Q: What sequence folds into this?
């Protein structure tokens, strides 16, 4: 079986060994199809993740019509690029400006747009982040190394099972000649949650 490699289990860390053992048992009992497991792993390793959201942001930076569509109907605009499905059915894009910085949280659990950002980081699901960012967003952002001017307001968006958010950060200065692919390389996962900024080109 694709995932049944007992000769190598001694080289796995304890958690990986437990996962491997559980998968082997479930496969042998006919409860799990190894091909389906491989497809899930392939999907989350290569087909969903922050690289998708970065492409959406880069397109919004370079295509005013797409940016307008993203503002009006983010779900449809994002789906037009092939990014749709689980945890990405209902999307809203919020655009950062010099006057307003947006940050996303899910105060109840960890609702998160998997199709454009991949799996949520551990800190996004932590009670500390979920409770504090709505009360003292500037202090939390400062802990991420993001220090905003006092003239910039901060708006916190609370994701739910019905609606998830994608922050469109401001395009960095000095990127006018870059291709969409090069621009996407500057977009970080944190900048699309609102806890960071895009990278600045060298």
A:
């Amino acid at each position: 079986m694709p995932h049944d490699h007992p000769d190598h289990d001694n080289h796995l860390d304890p958690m990986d060994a437990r996962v491997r053992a559980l998968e082997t048992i479930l496969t042998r009992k006919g409860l799990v199809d190894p091909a389906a497991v491989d497809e899930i792993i392939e999907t989350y390793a290569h087909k969903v993740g922050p690289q998708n959201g970065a492409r959406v942001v880069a397109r919004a930076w370079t295509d005013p019509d797409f940016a307008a569509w993203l503002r009006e109907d983010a779900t449809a605009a994002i789906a037009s690029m092939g990014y749709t499905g689980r945890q990405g059915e209902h999307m809203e894009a919020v655009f950062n400006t010099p006057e307003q910085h947006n940050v996303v949280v899910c105060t109840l659990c960890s609702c998160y747009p998997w199709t454009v950002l991949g799996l949520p980081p551990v800190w996004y699901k932590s009670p500390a982040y979920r409770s504090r960012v709505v009360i003292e967003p500037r202090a939390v952002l400062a802990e991420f190394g993001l220090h905003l001017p006092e003239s910039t307001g901060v708006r916190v968006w609370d994701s739910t099972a019905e609606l998830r958010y994608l922050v469109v950060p401001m395009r960095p200065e000095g990127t006018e000649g870059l291709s969409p692919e090069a621009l996407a390389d500057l977009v970080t996962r944190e900048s699309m949650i609102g806890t960071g900024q895009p990278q600045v080109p060298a």
User: Anything to note?
Assistant: Strands lie at 91-95, 100-105, 153-158, 164-168. The chain has eleven helices and four strands. The longest helix spans residues 14-28. The chain has a mean pLDDT of 88.
